[in-house]
Amino acid sequence: MWPMKLNCNGKTLDLGSPRVMGILNVTPDSFSDGGRFLQRDAAVVQALQMEKDGAAIVDVGGESTRPGASPVSLQEELDRVIPVIEILGEKLEIPVSVDTSKPEVMREAIQAGAGLINDVNALRSEGALVQAAALGVPVCLMHMQGRPDTMQQAPRYDSVLDEVRAFLTERIGACVEQGIPHGDILVDPGFGFGKTLMHNLELLHGLGELEKLGCPLLVGLSRKSMLGTLTGREPEQRVAASVAAALLAVERGASIVRVHDVAETVDVLKVLEAVIDPASAGR
Ligand code: 9MG
């Protein structure tokens, strides 16, 4: 069994019960166009609210990984995320993670106070694995088939569950060989990253199989297009579907759910926990 508590650059992430990771996208389309300083302030206010609402960690990202999104330059990504992480490192009691695949952003983010690396590219970018190992913080390795700009064009698998498991097994091995302790590794099947609706549903159905990897599972389903396909709703109207998906993921073994709607997800997980362990209710 993996350690219940992760040391995230001096702040603790306790995985003794399922946790919520709040999504903080610091991209121009995420906050109204009021200039950099106003956008930074709005991001900080949103993160503080997530902490109040019960998030256990806030994930800060400056490059969209949505299907079809174009890459941003290193300098642009640094300019977006580092000032926000610096402020959050001081103002939040909970840890901050950095959502990036670039080794330079990893380094500067951890120096600025972030405590976990969330890499949708599973540390495959040049220099990322060595950099992450040197930084000594927990890492989340996510499965993706292809690249964000093209990944949804024609995803195909013989067995999505087997292939995701094999990929994550290989990446865990690469990390351990590079000196990242097994107990500092989280894994994520990467819902929506090079997967059709059927692939995503098969993965969610069989999520429990990934527990055998021996690492905490992090899962992101919040407002994703698979929920739009199932409900016919636009992203902002997918709160109920997102919360249901988070609940299903936690029931199948997810330790962390990455969500936009923190308060709603925290409430539902409180109900789940109370039903599983009535003695915990009201603690
Ligand atoms: C950055 N990002 C977007 N979607 C994600 C997901 O499903 N998992 C993780 N770990 N990161 C994600």
Query: Any ligands, ions or cofactors bound here, and which?
Result: 9-methylguanine
Which band does the percent of strand residues land in?
Answer: 15-25%
Q: What is the count of distinct domains?
A: 1
The main β sheet shows up as: 8 strands, parallel
* Rg (C-alpha, Å): 18 Å
Give the number of DSSP strands: 10
CATH superfamily membership: Dihydropteroate synthase-like
Derived structural class: alpha/beta
Number of helices: 9
Average residue pLDDT: 94
Low-confidence segments: none
Query: Helix share of residues?
Result: 40-55%
> What is the N-to-C succession of helices and strands?
EEEHEHEHEHEHEHEHHEH
Report on the structure:
- This protein is globular.
- It has helices spanning 36-52, 74-91, 103-111, 128-135, 160-178, 197-205, 225-231, 239-251, 262-276, and strands at residues 5-8, 11-14, 19-25, 57-61, 96-99, 116-119, 139-142, 185-188, 217-220, 254-259.
- It has one domain (17-280): TIM Barrel (Alpha-Beta Barrel).
- The model has no long low-confidence stretch (mean pLDDT 94).
- The two termini are 25 Å apart.
- The longest helix has 19 residues, at 160-178.
- With 283 residues, it is of the alpha/beta class.
- The strands form 2 sheets. It has an 8-stranded parallel β-sheet, with helices on one face. A two-stranded antiparallel ribbon has the order 1-2.
- Bound molecules: 9-methylguanine.
- Residues 61, 65, 99, 118, 120, 140, 142, 188, 190-191, 218, 220, 258 line the site of 9-methylguanine (9MG).
